[in-house]
Amino acid sequence: NECYIFGNLLFSMKKLIFRNFAKDTLNFFLIMCLTIGIIVWTLQAVNYFDYVSEDGHGLKTYFSYIILNFPKIIHRIIPFIFFISLFYILNHYEFKNELQIFWTFGVSKIEFANKVVLLSIFLTIFQIWFGSFLSPYSQLKGRELLKNSDMGFFTSLIKEGKFINAVSGLTIFINKKNDDGSFSNIFLDDSSKNVSKMIYAKNGNIIDSGQTKIFRLYEGQVINNDNKKINIFEFEQINFNLGNFASSSILVPKVQEVASKHLLSCSLDSLFGFNFSGHETFKCSDNIINEVKQELFKRFHKPLYIPLIAILSCFLIIVPKNNYRYERNRKIIFIIIFFVLIISEASLRYSTTSQLSTFLYLLTPILSFAIIYSFFYRGVRNV
Questions:
Q1: What pLDDT was estimated at residue 6?
Q2: Helix, strand, coil percent values for the chain (each to nearest 5)
């Protein structure tokens, strides 16, 4: 009975200290994710301000768009943040002698490593879900937000002596902007590939009806050049509907914004000749198939580097801090894991250049994990 009670007590203590380790790691991971994510998000938000300053979208659209791009940033930094979190917590536990608690309660180093790897597998599953569903979904919603935007900031873009190309297919030049909000000496170039249409007006002003914007022009001329036939007519007043023009922002979803099921269908279509229906704004074609495959690898395969990072980090527990090799061991492990992160990013670009490169890319994290785990096991099996 005493052995049974002692065994249960030991088992409970092991669960408790492992739970505490996982809690500390995940708490630090979440704090770092939010901190680094907000820093990167703020820097990107400055670049996205072009949607207001050059493309004429309203501030509400701008803030909604940058918020919807936040999950993309978190998805990209998760492997790096996990590496920093695990590296920091293991070093912290070592310097505080808290790792000794594990060894005192009979936890072997291979058992400890298995728990760390198990934690990394849960994070890998989360990363796959995050990258295959949440991140592309939020980015697609942001693109749809731009597409449906009413360009509420358009009027403020119009400045004296500046060509305005905020809307696709239309160029506006204003010679003078008056104090009352009207304009003088206005030139509009509304030209397509086959038809050229230019409008000159002495005066004009923009009327916002709530549903659309109208450029009301006074005393001017319209010059049409259709198949080398030039027609000129004068007007006293004409309404030019700005609602017929789309923003010059890219409104078609990029590959990284398309749902995973559409990308998978597109990839299967290229392999087996299936009929791909796809998304209404996403067209699967041979010239983007490599990009589609790379995106699928990024969402479903690149997260497999997370367990590799975990087992590499566990090499920190082999050499204790009172060993003269500890500092050198810690620096070498940091450099190796950092190099692995670089490889995981750089190799994705070349993963679809040939069948051999695809095979090597798919095999690398799995084979590397198996080899490194076997080295770790041999190094600690008698410890």
A1: 43
A2: 60, 15, 25
